[in-house]
Amino acid sequence: MGQINVFYSPTFVDSGFVMASGNSYFDEMRKNPEVTDLPNSDDPIGAENLDDPVHHLPKSSIAVASSVRELLDCPVCLNAMYPPIHQCSNGHTLCSACKPRVHNRCPTCRHELGNIRCLALEKVASSLDLPCKYQSFGCVGIYPYYSKLKHESQCTFRPYNCPYAGSECSVVGDIPSLVTHLKDDHKVDMHSGSTFNHRYVKSNPHEVENATWMLTNVHSPTSSNKNLFKSLIVPQVFSCFGQCFCLHFEAFQLGVSPVYIAFLRFMGNDEDAKNYGYSLEVGSMGRKLMWQGVPRSIRDSHRKVRDSYVGLIIQRNMALFFSGGDKKELKLRVTGRIWKEQL
To answer: Which residue intervals define the domain RING-type in the entry (predicted)?
Structure first.
């Protein structure tokens, strides 16, 4: 790679930007990657940040920006570098997060790093306008380099995390791909329609674990099968109004008391979730509990929604009352519906 001459008063430093390749030292450092924070708004270089995208940028300018953009990748963690960008006396750069990790030694030439700041590269970065990394998901915005990371953290086109609650799943994607993933990989039950009538059963109601358990469809063809009442981790997905919703039901400890909670999550962003409402109901023996609210977006994790207690909450004593019989087996029928708000 060519050399870029950077002048520092009163001395001159030949600052060649060298990218790492085939170096075992870099491989070792990348085992524990770190992501740098956004530049502080007080930074003179980052003060030109803009939130609005830059449109109609010529294709040739984007190509040039992309090649220069490669200079801004830290050779250790491979993340984008933000001020302060450090360099050694030979001009090799690295990000501020990696500097303490290399014990003040340049990972490329092993010279002492010192406190040289690469102001030239920081200035070059401030002149770049780049496309959002979620362009393939539909984002068409072009953003200043120092605004891009902030935009991407809030981009409405950024992929969603898998909403499956039975285990930690690292899969991300758009809504159609996640629906397919839930069906094929997690074997989630899919339902069409805006109403539901499910039964939750557990043989020993005194055992309460932080786990998600099964809601079985009362109207399914297998509803007469005794195996229907086994406790399984099988969430439910409902398709209606051209959207998908995840229904959750689980038991967990609230302090020293076990409780049951049911809630609905919207497979989309927060703004679109506000266009829908839902109700949940459980009852028996002349008593009834109801909940009505707005589904939470899957942008919020399952645990975050659960721990906010936004949903139908049933204390164990009430749950056993609704179960009837000798109270040795938990049998709760949960009904509900989803509707689209009239705007």
So the answer is: 74-110
